[in-house]
Write a structure and sequence with these properties.
Blueprint (H helix, E strand, L loop, with lengths): L17 H4 L8 E2 L2 E2 L2 H13 L6 H23 L6 H26 L4 H15 L4 E10 L2 H12 L4 H8 L10 E5 L6 H7 L12 E3 L2 E12 L5 H26 L8
Antiparallel strand pairs: 1-2, 3-4, 3-6, 5-6
Amino acid sequence: MKKTVLCLLLAFTSQSVFLVANAADDAPITVNGVTLSSALVERSVSLNVQQGKKDTPELRKLIKEEFINREVVAQQAAKLGLDKTPDGQAAFAEMKRNFLVELFLADYDKTNPITDAAIKAEYDKQLAAIGDQAQEYKLSHIVTKTEADARALLARIKKGETFAKVAKEASIDPSAKDSGALGWLLPNQIIPAVANVIVNLTEGSVTAAPIQTAGGWQLVRLEEKRPFKAPKIEDVTPQLRATLQQQQRVDAIKKLRSSAKVTGNM
């Protein structure tokens, strides 16, 4: 469900504000006899406030104008019978399904909150998996479609072109816009084929040959390395909570799926 409510559907002229301005703030708004829900207006105001906006008369007027615009367009779509077409019916069904999924997940999160104890347990579990002697690696990489392309780029680097320049010009990975920079990573955050190689690199060096991965052929440069320093639990609590919440949702869906009767070809 989209939370942005202020993108106006129609470029109404300033004269159209009389639809809201002439009515008392607490009076119900009707459009061609249809009363707009004041509860929806209040919900939209609340969502905007949550996003940092102030609850002002101007904000409320914009929200009401948006609902009026949407109601006018919705009524016209219904008049044209667009909601009765196969595409319209399919879209309605998908919107309803997505809406119900969001309602279920929001309710599940509310009734099954992530506890501080669970967050602490996950924090300790992740630290144990990383280990006391872990190293962090600051990496840059270049990704190509073929081994031949990677070897050609490696030759350019050996002749004196900087890794960053070649990455920016030739890498097919989205990191090319950052000259191939990947930032600081732990070994368990790096695909094994690359992790097994970089542990033997010295700072500033590049892999001697291209590495084949599922995403293409890679050249990797080790920029720096340092001992891993565990973050404070309060600094990573939001990420840990999100991880646990996502896993909890997955488990809930698996449980529902296991009891569902599914027929037909998969």
